[in-house]
Every structure is written in C-alpha cells, then in structure tokens.
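Recap slide: ADP-ribose pyrophosphatase YjhB, NUDIX family, sequence and predicted structure.
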Amino acid sequence: MTDPAPAPAEAARDRVPRRAARVAVLDPDGAVFLLRYDNPEVGRHWAMPGGGLEGDETPREGAVREAREETGWTDVEPGPLLCTWEHDFTRGDVPVRQHEHIYVAHAPHRPLSGDLVAAHRADGILDGRWWTPAELVATDEALWPPQLPALLAELRAHGPADPAPDLGYVPNGPRRTAG
C-alpha cells in the first residue's frame, strides 16, 4: 500500500518558497497567449508568460520583465490582477512552492518577436501559441492555473474582480508526458 500524499502545509515544508508573476496577454478577440512546458515533476502544461521575481522586484515589474524575455514583446503593460495562486513544481533540481500574481494585459495577435531560442531553452519552454476561449474550454491539456478558462470567462463577462480571487494552493493534476 502506498502512503497518502502529504497535506499542502506539510509538503510546503519540503519546498523552497518562490515568488513569481505572469501575464495573461489577451488579443482583441479574447484569445490568450500561452507557453508550453514539459517539467520532469508535473509533465506537459501550458502557462502564461512569466516566472520568478528577481531581488526586490515587485510582481508587476517581474511580469513586465518576464513577458519581454519570453515573448520579445516590449509593449506589454500589465493591467488589473486576474488572480493569485500557489503550486508546487521542481525547477532545476529544487522543489519549490511558487506563489504567483497573474495580471491581465491586452496586445495585438502576433507571433513571438526576436531570437528567443536560448531563453526558451533555459526556461524549458517548448512552444507558444494563442488559444481562443473555446479552445481553452475544450482542451484536455494541463493549464496553469487549471481555473484559467473560468477566470478568463468571468473577466470577459464582468470585467476584473475587485479584489482579484486568491485561488490558494492548487495541487498538481495527473502528470502528462510530452507528445
């Protein structure tokens, strides 16, 4: 018989805290740009541009920097906060509990800009694409956060929530392998 998974608080003791920020970049038709990762611990998943904060960087500052580094777009300005959440994964060989701020930004529908091969290789980014709202709802691909389709639907229907929802700790779903 296998041991049950540790409780979130117990699992957090074994993980390094990491602060991060992401940007839900939306085109004029409501499609969102996502990047594909294949992490050894959690498998294949799609997430918005973003990542760990540096030094005393604020979440908004980190979101701007990360979006620029991962997309090449220099005009992405984060607007309202979409949500916050925490999740676990292993970055390099370090197990982390990541606390993320996710902001909303609007930009034209366009391809990535510039030479991003080295940056994507360093961050484990395998692909990037625009997802329509219908594609998000219909996919069986893992999304970070998993509530992303509902969060964006609520944003389209009612505008930004004030205050933005805190999703709390969200455990990882079933691992999906590359394919």
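The chain has five helices and nine strands.
The CA atoms of residues 86 and 99 lie 4 Å apart.
(End of recap.)
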